Amino acid sequence: MDSVSDLKSKEIKRATLNELVEYVSTNRGVIVESAYSDIVKMISANIFRTLPPSDNPDFDPEEDEPTLEASWPHIQLVYEFFLRFLESPDFQPSIAKRYIDQKFVQQLLELFDSEDPRERDFLKTVLHRIYGKFLGLRAFIRKQINNIFLRFIYETEHFNGVAELLEILGSIINGFALPLKAEHKQFLMKVLIPMHTAKGLALFHAQLAYCVVQFLEKDTTLTEPVIRGLLKFWPKTCSQKEVMFLGEIEEILDVIEPTQFKKIEEPLFKQISKCVSSSHFQVAERALYFWNNEYILSLIEENIDKILPIMFGSLYKISKEHWNPTIVALVYNVLKTLMEMNGKLFDDLTSSYKAERQREKKKELEREELWKKLEELKLKKALEKQNSAYNMHSILSNTNDELKKKPATSVG
Amino acid sequence: MAGAAGPAAGSGAAGGDGDDSLYPIAVLIDELRNEDVQLRLNSIKKLSTIALALGVERTRTELLPFLTDTIYDEDEVLLALAEQLGNFTGLVGGPDFAHCLLPPLESLATVEETVVRDKAVESLRQISQEHTPVALEAHFVPLVKRLASGDWFTSRTSACGLFSVCYPRASIAVKGEIKQYFRSLCSDDTPMVRRAAASKLGEFAKVLELDSVKSEIVPLFTNLASDEQDSVRLLAVEACVSIAQLLSQEDIEALVMPTLRQAAEDKSWRVRYMVADKFSELQKAVGPKITLNDLIPAFQNLLKDCEAEVRAAAAHKVKELCENLPIEGRETIIMNQILPYIKELVSDTNQHVKSALASVIMGLATILGKENTIEHLLPLFLAQLKDECPEVRLNIISNLDCVNEVIGIRQLSQSLLPAIVELAEDAKWRVRLAIIEYMPLLAGQLGVEFFDEKLNSLCMAWLVDHVYAIREAATSNLMKLVQKFGTEWAQNTIVPKVLVMANDPNYLHRMTTLFCINALSEACGQEITTKQMLPIVLKMAGDQVANVRFNVAKSLQKIGPILDTDALQVEVKPVLQKLGQDEDMDVKYFAQEAISVLALA
């Protein structure tokens, strides 16, 4: 595309669009029924387009500059105009819904994949207004966003507008009525939680975590499945992601109800125990910072008899072995805090620590023995099979020989 | 669960021989409850061991139900399980019992994670072959129907991959049902399912009777090709190839071409790209007449498409398109209908387009013959040889053999040499590396005199390049040249120059001498190695820089096998022994290693 051709015509168009924006913003009563069709047509003609392939196929949103839309000088004004149109006090959804229909919204959603962040920003506001004003389109919009996200998670791992869509969803979730519909709960568990596995999580994690926490504030019984879901998808090799997950867990713990906490404390602290002993110091540090959170401390104290045995082993080990002195210092403070919460249990665990280690080693040896026995069993069976086949064969051949040797004797 | 979770489980206590049969299940249960996912994974990977130990009947009655009911695990474990089950038919008692494997695989086929689902479908396809037709209808087809009516999209997507394997052997009535299910998936609400259906359309069409293809598949194809989502439409293009292969020319013209024409002008560049990408297959499938009337005009449009991606994809297909035209009249077609468009591409604004063209354009020489090549193609080659983008130039150079066959490289050599030199001195080392890799090929085609005259100094210059990767490639290049041109040539032209570097003030260059000797000794043979190379190597044993000295040890180890025992004992051994006493640890180490490997101790 040559951006400097037809400069004169482009200028005329730009001026006209400007005029339109002004006109709609400053005058009342100008959005008449007969204009709706043409307005929507004009907007569609300008913004609905197949997005071109990215100039940079290895585009990394965190590092690279995005490819900006070449026709932005016009498109920006079209979006401005669209917004003024939607936000005008004269705007009547009942008339507009003839033109702003499902097909329109579908095409609008596809534009969220634009690489140009300015466009996505406009789209975000536009979609938000449409969701607000067109009640009949709400279910459709949610369903299409569902499909976009599912495709993102399971097929392409590429979509530039995830953060923007999540931002809109955040305010949608905020407005859900109680009790939550099954459709919404399914969205949380089958779309939002698996979304945590995306490679580019860093780009939209803040918005994603916000959505998750919103859900939990609406319905606390979702806490257990949510945390179990996060634990299932816990990052195994990406430390940057682990730090994000820990941040999200802290946000969830900030609003958790004590009864819900009891349900997930064991699996959760097993994971935290692993994080705390991570050799990546940022992960360990982030996990240890949980002990700076007053509310979390109070929850731990209330449930110290369950939590301390889980945490003790790794904390003890790191206090002796971790390479990073800051971590070791943090661990000592944590151990001290825990000791103050329940001194007796702490002492018991300390003294039985060595015995625990021995037991674990013994179990490991027994395990190996078991597998060895199993392999021997397998060989034995294979041999048996072979032998029995051989026996069958020899029985058969003997029988044949017998038959050959003794011709049938006649009776009598 | 029958019997298996007995007292022998969990505690790991050794049972007597009578308890042998309890071990396998007990072990498995234990391991599968283990915290450590690695242990769970290992256990699943050894599932066949467990099944063997249990025997076929217990595998069927205990192991499989256990797996179906209790596996909700990490995706890694599920993936391993899906894979194992695909090969389990023998372990459950043979084809008569293959259907026992279906329940666990069915639940694996509904899992969220794509790789697990795909593996489960793969295993199901494998097992379907081992079902008898009766078992297929009794067990497999109902499974497919259940998946196809599942309420979450994952099971419906998995179902799409199973239609083609159960259709052929089903009865007429069941065939009708299968077709109906497939039809409904093609118009499913969810785009994910429609995409899965579209991607399996071609495969399904291949197992259907011709009438069904015309009456059922073609309408489905047409619908999918006009889906609102471009991701669905582009998959229909792929299906187009398979469908066209099944139909007669009249049927293709009537049933397929309208849709294909539409696709070639689709408003989404992705669909147009797909048409360009599949062009050769489409050409073969629709036959020469339709190609001439429809596809060539479409191709022309693709070559001047507004999106560079599409132009590049089309450019890639130019040679194949021309090769697959019927020999009679093809020269005219290419000259009149293809060449004008290609000429435009040579000066395209996008470098990927030019590069794609450069990689195939030389191939046209053999098709068009000597005169046309000289008059029409040669100017294009020369233009691309001077292109500002190094990749374009490289692509031309790498395909010179096609041209050599037709007109001989001499025509090009005037322009070729400056192009080669420029690439050889490009600022980016990866470009320099690429040209080195083509050097043996070029040398072979240009002949030894041309090489010695013009390219020899280039090859020597690479040996002292700043970048190690270049020096390394240059060394290997020399070795290939020696293999091409022979030891006498090596002795006269290469070896003296290499050995001179041994006195270079830069220790990296002195080391390069050693690396060259490593590479060349085998190709040059015992005499040259002993008489000319060995003395230099031994002299460098006294080098100031430790790196050089330990590389001497390594070189001696490398060339040792080529030398005779005399040389080894009289000349090499003392030097290695002295190096073995060197003050530097690494020198000592490599010297001792060389001594032991050469068995000189």
UniProtKB/TrEMBL annotation, chain A:
MF GO annotations: protein phosphatase activator activity
One Gene Ontology cellular component: nucleus
A Pfam family recorded for this sequence: B56
GO term, biological process aspect, one: signal transduction
InterPro entries on file: ARM-like, ARM-type_fold, PP2A_B56
Family the entry assigns: Belongs to the phosphatase 2A regulatory subunit B56 family.
Physiological role: The B regulatory subunit might modulate substrate selectivity and catalytic activity, and also might direct the localization of the catalytic enzyme to a particular subcellular compartment.
Name recorded for this polypeptide: Serine/threonine-protein phosphatase 2A 56 kDa regulatory subunit
Annotated gene: PPP2R5A
Automatic annotation (TrEMBL), chain B:
GO CC list: cytosol; nucleus; protein phosphatase type 2A complex
Domain TOG intervals: 245-476
Gene Ontology molecular function terms on file: protein phosphatase regulator activity
InterPro entries hit by this protein: 2AA_helical (IPR055231), ARM-like (IPR011989), ARM-type_fold (IPR016024), HEAT (IPR000357), HEAT_type_2 (IPR021133), PP2A/SF3B1-like_HEAT (IPR054573), PP2A_Regulatory_Subunit_A (IPR051023), TOG (IPR034085)
Superkingdom assignment: Eukaryota
Positions of HEAT repeats: 24-62, 101-139, 178-216, 217-255, 256-294, 295-332, 338-376, 377-415, 416-454, 494-532, 533-571, 572-601
Keyword annotations of the record: Repeat
Record family assignment: Belongs to the phosphatase 2A regulatory subunit A family.
Database matches in PANTHER family: SERINE/THREONINE-PROTEIN PHOSPHATASE PP2A 65 KDA REGULATORY SUBUNIT (PTHR10648), SERINE_THREONINE-PROTEIN PHOSPHATASE 2A 65 KDA REGULATORY SUBUNIT A BETA ISOFORM (PTHR10648:SF9)
Protein name listed in UniProt: Serine/threonine-protein phosphatase 2A 65 kDa regulatory subunit A beta isoform isoform X3
Organism expressing this protein natively: Odocoileus virginianus
Gene from which this protein is expressed: PPP2R1B
